[in-house]
């Protein structure tokens, strides 16, 4: 419960306790490009977001991100090629689709997407807590 009124000198003199959380560094098993993805993702989330048990999922997310980028490069090369091969291009598009599905699944499971962080239930709760309805004294 929040205390009403001014804070006392003793309350103002108390320094807030700040816990420093060390962000996990990229594992050695990742390539340089995958490690850059790891660092970029970890830097965007709160410091304690990635606990030890989530690291294998994050490793795979980084690997699939790099793989998806490579498949996209191959698709672009094939589309620019003078010797365009429709069958090869189709296989690349299917590979891109698989990588995209894996990325979406991992990101959602790790609660990295907007959908997984703020859904309809959270929106309804936020609306109720924001005071959008009538105040008790307005009845």
**Succession of helices and strands:** HHHHHH
Tally of helical segments: 6
**Percent range for β-strand residues:** under 5%
Rg, please?
24 Å
End-to-end Cα distance: 25 Å
Class by helix and strand content?
Answer: mainly alpha
Describe the main β-sheet briefly: none
In terms of per-residue confidence, which ranges show pLDDT below 50 for 5 or more consecutive residues? none
Overall mean pLDDT score? 87
Helix content range of the residues, please? 55-70%
Q: What coarse outline follows from CA principal-axis ratios?
A: elongated
> What is the total tally of β strands?
0
Structure description:
The protein is mostly helical and 139 residues long. It has a domain at 29-40 and 51-112. It is built from six helices and no strands. The longest helix is centred in the middle third of the chain and has 26 residues, at 55-80.
Keywords:
139 residues, 6 helices
Helix/strand layout:
Blueprint: H1 9-13, H2 32-44, H3 55-80, H4 86-109, H5 114-117, H6 120-129
Helix pairs in contact: 2-3, 3-4
In short:
By secondary structure, the protein is mostly helical. It is 59% helix and 0% strand. The chain has a domain at 29-40 and 51-112.
């Amino acid at each position: 419960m929040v205390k009403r009124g001014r804070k006392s000198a003793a309350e103002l003199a108390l320094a807030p306790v700040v816990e420093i959380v060390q962000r996990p560094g990229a594992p050695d098993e990742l390539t340089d490009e995958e490690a850059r993805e790891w660092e970029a993702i970890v830097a965007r989330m709160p410091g304690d977001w990635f606990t030890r048990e989530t690291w294998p999922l994050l490793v795979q997310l980084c690997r699939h991100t790099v793989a998806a980028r490579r498949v996209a490069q191959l698709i672009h090369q094939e589309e620019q090629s003078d010797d365009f091969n429709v069958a090869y291009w189709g296989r690349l598009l299917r590979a891109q689709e698989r990588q995209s599905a894996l990325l979406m699944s991992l990101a959602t499971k790790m609660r990295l997407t907007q959908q997984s962080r703020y859904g309809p239930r959270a929106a309804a709760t936020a609306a109720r807590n924001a005071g959008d309805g009538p105040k008790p004294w307005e009845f």
